[in-house]
Design a protein that fits this description.
By secondary structure, this protein is an alpha+beta fold. The protein has helices at 2-19, 53-73, 81-88, 102-120, 123-139, 148-157, 170-188, 192-210, 213-216, 223-235, 238-250, 277-294, 297-314, 362-379, 382-396, 439-448, and strands at 40-41, 47-49, 324-329, 341-346, 414-415, 455-458, 461-464, 470-475, 481-488, 495-502, 508-514, 522-525, 528-529, 538-544, 551-555, 560-563, 575-580, 583-588, 600-603, 609-615, 618-629, 648-656, 668-669, 672-675. Strand 12 and strand 13 (528-529) form a beta hairpin.
């Protein structure tokens, strides 16, 4: 009887989504009916990159990143991820191989392919996905449970246990299944993966209704918060929103919770960002999704506290998060050693931002993007777009090589061969991160989806968040058509030109983001300066009755700036970093053939001139100038020496931080000593 009910439920769902497919918004994060979200995303297929920075990255994603990731996750010798599904489905024999979160890695890869299909309509991608989805569906247990590591063992034992291990990634994997299914459905209109995700979500709903708080907390990384809300937005099944709210409520309801898993303190009682940075940022993003649907003020109040704490005390200049390989928590709040917990990938204390040993897992930085994108949708405040853009251009892109085939797990802000210890993760990008390859499919899906972060619509008009050469063809909230082209060399220059191609006859607003670093931006319409508030860290609103052929020009200053950190950041005291627009720069050893990076001192008055260069086939903007150099010293077995004066000059070249390590093994530093 249960089996008949399950099949009938899926059939009804398939029929309902088919009938509603025309009305279904096809955005990456669908806030079209979210009552507490100010902004609504445009559909995934409504923005096309044409030229410039993101068009180049998208081309690499299409030709290299996505095919390479699909190859890796379908290769039994490299990852064994798809083979795990085949074995769980009874189509092959053998044992599970790879980490317990491998299913989630495969779902992220599938989501990247679906996102690429939404943009390209490449039939080969559709066919690839259908073949894989058929196996995934066959591997699922009748009750909806899906976790290859457990199911392969259960085929041998006959048992049907689940969530027995507190370090289990079952819910994390299912969360990525949910998200991938929503993206796949919106890209293709097909329900084959959605049917799998719906059965899995139904399973989670029943499980969390019946499980004790101690058992229900066995969810090591909360991707399923975002996934559950997106399933609700897609199906409008109220149980899924109920599940999402319950997931927040059960956190902190046990006696032995940890900051590592964000459940030592109930979410609503948290005052500081603590614990594992990936899990924290995923949690914050999921909670923001729940707030968008419920308007629960206790959630947004805590999210605001977390955001202020992270951006004011714990975030790197690159947008990176999670400064420590291993930290302790609670820190300084207990005299009892048994209460002090070891935390992996920890946020650390306020201002605790080491450079050589910075962790900054690529997934944490992507989590920062996911969180800030949702906060932006809730509020329309430019500060969230600023952080999102900062992370995208720096600590997210640094996680992947320029050719799209090699990856970093951690993203330090300095590297030296002189360090007398070996760090846990390679500082040279590698094709496959054997112990934990979660970051590569995550960064690939993110780059495939960048167009979805460029624009939003609201009741008032169109919002522009990220700049890049593209074509937009969408509808405003009232259903009227709007299309425009954007031409720009951003982020290498700050001239952004928009041309209206199709427009409503009614007045509406264009909201242009003025980045926080743009202190003297200008806006012109049809060549004339406009009477509009153009303030850094805000959106300039241009309201008028637009007509076809209207041109808007946004001019953002692009001078290189020296940035210093709060003096409480001990590791960067009396040092500066260089930032030009949204891009953070670094000094790399390949550009200092006769000097060590530690010998370079930057004058506070340095003049840095932009110069285009090519690194591994990619066009980037370098910065060249004249700095000072100190006398080289042999520091071997020496801890302290007398200071020498910086009395020599040397030419230096700085490259974008995201491009370091693409010319072979290199030493690197973002922060450099400064002379005033």
């Amino acid at each position: 009887m249960n089996r008949i009910f399950a099949k009938g439920s899926i059939a009804l769902f398939a029929a309902s989504v088919a009938l509603g497919a025309q009305a279904q918004e096809k955005s990456l994060v669908n806030t079209s009916k979210s009552p507490y979200a100010k902004l609504q995303s445009v559909n995934m297929d409504e923005v096309t990159w044409t030229d410039g920075f993101w068009a180049d990255r998208f081309k690499v994603a299409r030709e290299s990143m996505v095919p390479n990731m699909w190859r890796i996750y379908n290769d039994a010798e490299i990852s064994h991820a798809f083979k795990n599904f085949q074995i769980a489905a009874g189509l092959d024999t053998g044992s599970h191989k790879g980490p317990s979160f491998h299913d989630g890695d495969y779902y992220k890869t599938l989501e990247a392919v679906a996102s690429m299909y939404a943009a390209t309509r490449d039939k080969r991608l559709d066919e690839m996905m259908d073949k894989a989805i058929a196996v995934i569906a066959k591997s699922q247990r009748e009750d909806g449970y899906i976790y290859t590591k457990a199911m392969i063992d259960q085929r041998k034992t006959g048992e049907k246990n689940q969530f027995q291990d507190r370090l289990s990634f079952e819910a994390y994997n299912i969360g990525h299944l949910m998200t991938a299914a929503c993206v796949h459905y919106r890209a293709t209109g097909k329900t084959n993966l959605m049917n799998v995700a719906k059965k899995a979500t139904d399973y989670l709903y029943r499980f969390y209704k019946q499980a004790s708080p101690t058992l229900a907390r066995n969810a090591i990384c909360p991707s399923h918060y975002m996934g559950t809300v997106e399933m609700y937005r897609t199906t409008r099944d109220p149980r899924y929103l109920e599940l999402a709210k319950n997931l927040i409520d059960i956190k902190g309801k046990i006696n032995d919770g940890t900051d590592d898993n964000q459940d030592r303190i109930p979410f609503r009682e948290q005052k500081k960002a603590m614990g594992h940075a990936v899990r924290a940022n995923y949690l914050y993003a999921g909670v923001a999704d729940v707030y968008a649907e419920t308007g629960d003020e206790t959630l947004i109040n805590t999210l605001n506290l977390m955001w202020d704490d992270v951006t004011s005390h714990k975030m790197y200049i690159t947008g990176g998060c999670g400064s420590l390989y291993d930290g302790v928590s609670p820190d300084g709040t207990s005299y009892n050693p048994t209460e002090v917990q070891k935390i992996h990938q920890a946020f650390g204390r306020d201002y605790q931002l080491p450079n050589h040993t910075a962790h900054n897992e690529t997934c944490a930085n992507i989590g920062n993007v996911l969180w800030n994108w949702r906060m932006l949708q809730l509020s329309g405040e430019a500060k969230y777009a600023d952080v999102m853009e900062l992370a995208l251009y720096n600590s997210v892109l640094s996680g992947i090589s320029l050719d799209g085939k090699n990856f970093l797990y951690t993203n330090p802000l300095a590297f030296s061969d002189e360090l007398p210890f070996k760090q846990r993760w390679s500082k040279d990008r590698v094709p496959y991160i054997g112990l934990s390859n979660c970051c590569p499919p995550n960064v690939v899906r993110t780059i495939a989806q960048i167009a979805s972060y460029a624009y939003s619509v609201s009741d008032k008009g169109l919002w522009l968040h990220l700049y890049g050469g593209n074509k937009l063809s969408t509808k405003l909230k009232d259903g009227s058509k709007l299309s425009l082209t954007q031409e720009t060399g951003y982020p290498w220059n700050g001239n952004i030109n928009l041309t209206i191609k199709e427009t409503s006859a009614k007045p509406y607003s264009l909201f242009l983001r003025i980045p926080g670093w743009a202190s003297s931006a200008k806006v012109l319409v049809n060549g004339k300066a406009v009477d509009a508030a153009v303030k850094p860290g805000s959106y300039a609103e241009l309201n008028r009755k637009w007509k076809k052929g209207d041109k808007v020009e946004l001019v953002l200053p692009m001078e290189a700036k020296l940035v210093e950190a709060n003096p409480l950041v001990e590791e960067t005291r009396n040092q500066v970093a260089v930032k030009r627009g949204p891009v953070v720069y670094c000094l790399e050893s390949q550009d200092l053939p006769n000097l060590d990076i530690t010998n370079v001192v930057v004058p506070a008055t340095i003049s840095l001139q932009p110069k285009p260069i090519t690194i591994d086939g990619a066009q980037v903007m370098s910065l060249e100038g004249v700095a000072k150099s100190v006398e080289p010293k042999d520091w071997k077995n020496t801890l302290y020496r007398e200071v020498s004066t910086a009395d020599k000059t040397t030419s230096i070249r700085l490259i974008p931080y995201f491009a370091w390590g693409n010319r072979g093994h290199a030493e690197m530093s973002v922060w450099l000593p400064v002379s005033r």
